[in-house]
Amino acid sequence: MKMNEQINSDKNIAMGCLGCYAEGRLVFKWISYEQLVDEDGVTHTGRGLCKVAGCTHEHHDEWHIQDYDGINLGENPDIQHLYSLFEYLDGDGDRDAILLACKSQYSTTEEMSDNVERVKENLYYACEYEFELKDYFMNEAYENGIAHEDNPLLNYVDWEHYARDMMHHYTKIETEQGIYLWGTWC
Description:
This protein is of the alpha+beta class. It is built from seven helices and six strands, in the order βαβαβαααβααββ. Helix content is about 35%, strand content about 15%. It is elongated and about 75 Å long.
C-alpha cells in the first residue's frame, strides 16, 4: 500500500459551516487543531464550530470539515477524538507516518485515537529510499541473529529477494522523511 500524503502546516483543517453551504455560500476557515476547543479546554460543538469556521448566522449549528492539508480523516469525525489524536501527535516528527498507519488500520477517529500509541510502538522507520529496503532487512537479519558473519552460505543470499519476501509482513508507508514499515501482525 503506497500512501504519499503530507501534513505541511499548523493550520491543517478546513472547518466549514454546513448551513451556509446548503444556502449556496462557501464559508470555511483553515484552522489548527487547537481551535477545536475553547479557551477553557471544552470541545466546540454545533454552533461553536460554525463560529470557528467564520459563520455569522446564529441559527446555523451544522458543521463539516471541507478539507485537510494532507491526510483526509473524514468530513464529520468525532471532534474530541480528532483533537486528542492531533494533540498526542503534536510536534512528533513521525506524525504523517503514524496518521497514515492509523488510517490504513482503523476507520474512525475514535478507533485511531484509542490505538495511536500501539500504532506508534509498532511503526518502524526503515530507510529514506526504496532501494535501501534490502539493506534494512539485511541489517535486521544480522541484528536478530538470523545471519552470522561466519556462515559461508551468506554469499549466496539474494537480499533483494529476501526483502521482497519480508514485505509480505509489512505495510509500506512513504512520507517526506522516508519509508516506514507497519507490521501486518499488529
